[in-house]
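Following up on my earlier message about flavin mononucleotide. Here are the inputs again, as you asked, copied directly from the submission form:
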Amino acid sequence: MSSNNPLDLYRKMHDEAQARIKSKEDKPQVLIGTATCGVAAGALQVRDDFVREIEEKGLDAEVVEVGCIGHCYAEPLAIIAKPGFPPVCYGYLDEGLVHRLVEDFLGGDDPSYEYALAALERNDVFPTFEDFPRGIYEEKLILENCGFIDARDIDSYISREGYSALATALTQEPQAVLEEVKAANLRGRGGAGFPAGLKWEAAIKSGGNEKYVICNADEGDPGAFMDRSILESDPHLVIEGMILCAYAIGSQMGYLYIRAEYPRAVRHVQDAIDQARERGLLGSSILGTEFDFDLEIFQGSGAFVCGEATALISSMEGRMGMPQSRPPRLASRGFRGMPTVLNNVKTFAYVPLIIHHGAEWFKSIGTEESPGTAVFSLVGKVANTGLVEVPMGTSLRQLIYDVGGGLPGNRDFKAVQIGGPSGGCLPESALDVPIDFDSLHQAGAIMGSGGLVVMDQDDCMVAVSRYFLEFTQHESCGKCTFCRIGTKHMLDTLVDITQGKGDTETLGLLEELAEDVRDGSLCNLGRTAPNPILTTLRYFKDEYKAHIEEGRCPALVCRDLILYYIEPPKCSKLCNVCVGSCPTEAIFTREDGLKEIDQEKCVKCDNCRKACPTEYNAVVKLSPPVLPPQKEKAVK
Amino acid sequence: MQLLEGEKELILACVDEVLSNNSKNRENLIPILQKVQVRLGYLPPLAMEKIAEGIKVPPADVYGLATFYNQFRLNPPGKHQVKVCLGTACYMAGGDITLESFERRMKIKESETSPDRLYSLERVACVGCCTMAPVVVVDEEVEGKVTPTRVDGIMLALNEENDKSNLEQEPEQGRMDSDELK
Ligand SMILES: Cc1cc2nc3c(=O)[nH]c(=O)nc-3n(C[C@H](O)[C@H](O)[C@H](O)COP(=O)(O)O)c2cc1C
Ligand code: FES
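Thanks, got it. Here's what our run produced:
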């Protein structure tokens, strides 16, 4: 009888996995971050370089591909784990550095600390990531394995106690899983922060035998990639979370809705599903019990609105992804008309941890109302871009300055955009707002998808609003009038403003329209689309006014309101760099040897300004676009 | 866009194959469209008609889906595909200027294919390497910090490649495109 106990089965599986993984660790390992971010920076080349160098030197070391290590600013990244040394992480790798590391560290005994970012275990020689300000504020729960395990080897996950939460849960009643998730007050990470436990409970109460579990990995925010990174780097964590949910609500079938634009995530998840099935962790009689559950991938076809719950279901049913009005809630009528639980990737990822460590542990992290952590993809004008995970309640200031390392080159902070197209821009004065669902909402932004973009004085708030409106306008499914027509009008108005058009009434009308769209739209796409406008109007109205009243773009961004000008006193007549840099041949040499820009031909691409050597810095942007009076004519 | 010689037969065979390997119900419509696109590179009108027939839905429904979802392309992909990232970080770093530079050099607009089918140009959202903004994906290779000068460099390299493969196949057409750049 005892061999049928899921815990016994699991222990056996775990011990075998651990033995296999440990035996690999006896020899040096090179872990290379080959999530999409790494690949883009050339990680596959680095992998090949390592393999070749190791082979050439006849060394016994293994090269393993892992997911996103989180320090995307320093890609390509690798961790070298050699017995007798702390594991060390290296960044900015290239062929030369690889050669050196293989020769000196793998071949010899010199870890070349001068090239290392940090060590990963405490030691007496070299600091770890925890010793940096970033490490002090960061707390990795769902990103813990990312970048350290081989996503395509289930043993890598199992050896780190993966699937033990499932084994434990299977020895208890389904109700126990639900109670734990409810007690943990796990709030949905897909944006709105609705308590997952309540959603699950509603699906249970709906009754019936056919229920579905769906993971929302549509990730529509055009500047965010956390969900993809988690699926690429640690797919089993999400799968285990989904199985636990299925057990709690009594579902036999689940789907992961992943964008087709994320081919790597799709591949990794498919491999993970196949391996889990082979081990009896998916399919029928999971871990020897009577519980059956299986998973399939549905590839989303790239429409932002399909991230919305009801639109996602429509698209899975082979229709256009248009939102339906609710109720009925998905928990009572979802996929194929059956009770359905839909949660975000991160929401599911927390579940195994909560079951493993208990609700009390989860609640000890973060804030009372928003327990746990928040995951952001931190980008824009910030030194350390990448994926970060901090406890809820961390302030934006800590996130940007301590975790993100502040703005590069000591530039001045201007705003931070949170939550992508549905979120808002917050100014300096809001930097002490704690990061949690409710505080951000009060400040006018939303937790949203987790995209976080830092902006400085060179970023124009009107242009940023226009960018997001262009996006939402394009992605509006067209079903309801407020959203379809409203976003179009708002966008037109913003385009006008960036061209310096408009009058004293424009801003008032824009604000009114934004409020109407917010209140009148059918789904949250339309209801949140005005957020970028409303927040920038609230915090940066002067910038809008400068565009309209003075025809001036203070950040020198809006191309209709600037022109490029070569300042004669600064121009060195001997240098020709700007002429060569111009893609439209707009720059010419005058008779007196100075360079000048033909404004008719200029496309304002900024190339000449970048090209002009810093000792001259002769190319400037002027706004409003008026040329200074030409003194040299008078000289003639 | 004009069908090439033999393309019609190819399309029909492909649709037949995909339809016979999938159950023909509405829930499978999007996966079927995806599979056809993987094989053909795009969804020609003929393929959409045949799929509509096969699944017994009005052709308008299939067109509707194909135009609703960004993933589906209605134009054949060029021999070289350039995707310009206009995700938030790339846009702020001047991705729109990069896109315009490509439009100027290729003489096509975004989401179009050049008549000789050598180039196609698309915009995409965050490729996941925002640190390298503005980012461009040229035939699956990611290029970072792409300024208009770099655009010219990329186009030169692509043109050279075309010239080379043309020389191997049809020597007389060799220098057709690279002259435009000069
Ligand atoms: C326009 C729009 C786009 C959305 N995109 C996503 C998305 O990409 N990923 C996601 O998890 N939720 C997205 N949501 C939220 C979902 O509707 C839903 O609330 C969420 O997936 C539920 O999961 P949670 O409770 O775990 O947060 C979107 C909502 C709207 C209105
Ligand atoms: S926005 Fe272009 S790579 Fe992220």
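One observation from looking it over: Chain A has a mean pLDDT of 92. Hope that helps, and feel free to reply on this thread.
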